[in-house]
TrEMBL record:
Species this chain originates from: Vagococcus carniphilus
GO cellular component, one term: plasma membrane
Keywords: Cell membrane, Membrane, Transmembrane, Transmembrane helix
Name this polypeptide is given: Protein PsiE
Similarity-based family: Belongs to the PsiE family.
Organism lineage string: Bacteria, Bacillati, Bacillota, Bacilli, Lactobacillales
Length: 136
C-alpha cells in the first residue's frame, strides 16, 4: 500500500518537473527570439546591455534545465555541486549587470570566492570518500 503511494507521488513529481522544464524551455525560446530581434534591429545604444542581459538569463535557465535533467537521472538527487555552480553563475550575472557600487562588487566577489572554496572542499571530500572505499 505504501509502495503504491510512493509510485503515485513519484509520477506526480515527474509530471510537475516535466511541466517546469517545458515552461523553462518555452521561456528560453522566447528569450532567443528577443535576442535575435535586438541583434537584427538595434534601436539604441543600450542594445549591448540588453543583449547581455538576455544571454545571461538564457544561461541561467539552461542551468536549471540541466539541473532538472540531473535530478531525474540521478535517482531524484541533486548534487550540491550543481547548486553551488548555479549560485556562482547567478552571482556573476549580478556582478556583470550591476557593477556601479564598489561595496556590492566586493561583497559579490567574496561570495564567489567562498562558493569556489566550497566547491574545492566538496571535491576533496569526494576524493577522500573514493580513496576510503578503495581501501576497504
Amino acid at each position: 500500500m505504501v509502495e503504491k503511494y510512493k509510485n503515485w507521488l513519484n509520477r506526480i513529481i515527474k509530471l510537475f518537473l516535466f511541466a517546469l522544464a517545458t515552461l523553462i524551455i518555452v521561456y528560453m525560446a522566447r528569450d532567443l527570439v528577443e535576442i535575435f530581434n535586438v541583434i537584427i534591429m538595434p534601436n539604441s545604444e543600450r542594445s549591448l546591455g540588453i543583449i547581455s542581459d538576455y544571454i545571461l538569463a538564457f544561461f541561467m535557465l539552461f542551468e536549471f534545465i540541466v539541473m532538472i535533467i540531473k535530478y531525474i537521472e540521478d535517482t531524484h538527487n541533486i548534487p550540491i555541486k550543481y547548486l553551488v555552480i548555479i549560485s556562482i553563475t547567478a552571482i556573476l550575472r549580478q556582478l556583470l549587470v550591476v557593477h556601479n557600487d564598489a561595496v556590492q562588487t566586493i561583497i559579490l566577489t567574496l561570495a564567489i570566492l567562498i562558493l569556489t572554496i566550497v566547491l574545492y572542499v566538496i571535491e576533496l571530500i569526494k576524493k577522500k570518500e573514493i580513496e576510503r572505499k578503495k581501501n576497504k
